[in-house]
C-alpha cells in the first residue's frame, strides 16, 4: 500500500530512548526518544539529532521496550521505606571541616 503524502507503507520502527553524557558531566542524561530500524541507525540518528553542537562525549541508545521503570503511583512502596533510615543521610553524621564534598 502506498500514499502520495507518506510514501510506501513500512512496519513501525522500534522506539529508542537516548541518553547523552555532556563534556562536563559524569552521568548520562535522558535527552529524548527516536524511532530507528536497528541499533546502529539509532546511534547514528541520536548523534545527528541530539549532539549537533558538540554537546556530548558519549551516547547511549536503548530500545524503549528494554527499559523497566517504576510508576509514579508506586512512589510510596518504592521510596517511602528509606525515609525512616536516617543513618543513610549524611546529615546524621558529623562532617569534618577538611572534607570538601560528600
From TrEMBL:
Enzyme class: oxidoreductase
Presence of the UniProt keyword Oxidoreductase in the record: yes
EC identifiers of the protein: 1.14.13.149
Keywords: Oxidoreductase
Single GO term (MF): phenylacetyl-CoA 1,2-epoxidase activity
Keyword Oxidoreductase appears in the UniProt entry: yes
Domain of life: Bacteria
One Pfam family hit: PaaB
Protein known as: 1,2-phenylacetyl-CoA epoxidase subunit B
Species this chain originates from: Nocardiopsis alba
Amino acid at each position: 500500500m502506498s500514499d502520495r503524502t507518506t510514501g510506501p507503507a513500512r512496519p513501525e520502527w522500534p522506539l529508542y530512548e537516548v541518553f547523552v553524557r555532556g563534556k562536563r558531566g559524569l552521568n548520562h542524561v535522558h535527552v529524548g526518544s527516536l524511532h530507528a530500524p536497528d541499533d546502529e541507525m539509532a546511534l547514528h540518528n541520536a548523534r545527528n539529532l541530539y549532539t549537533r553542537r558538540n554537546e556530548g562525549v558519549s551516547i547511549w541508545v536503548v530500545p524503549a521496550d528494554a527499559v523497566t521503570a517504576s510508576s509514579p503511583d508506586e512512589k510510596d512502596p518504592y521510596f517511602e521505606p528509606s525515609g525512616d533510615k536516617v543513618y543513610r543521610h549524611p546529615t546524621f553524621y558529623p562532617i569534618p571541616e577538611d572534607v570538601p564534598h560528600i
